[in-house]
Amino acid sequence: MFSRLKNKWKVSGLQLLLILCTFAIGGSLTGLAGKAIMGYLPIERGFLWVLVYVILVTLIWPISVLVVSVFFGQFRFFISYLKKMGRRMKIIR
Length: 93
Prior knowledge:
The protein is 82% helix and 0% strand. It is mostly helical. The longest helix has 28 residues, at 13-40. The protein starts with a helix and ends in a 5-residue tail after the last helix.
């Protein structure tokens, strides 16, 4: 699995480790930030809470991953990764 990712992303073993750490830490920070923000909103837990949380996390995740990627030296990889995702979702050209 890891060798497939290395080949797909054209990265070294160390760079793959840094990328996976960035995904993990960025995702964890996204969840923590989302829960913290949801604590300030006057929405009771239920369908609407889940809907707002999913939208919030979807918006926070790219920012969180980019910030974390700076500290791991993987900013170039993640900016191109997010651009590719944006093109696939037809958000950017």
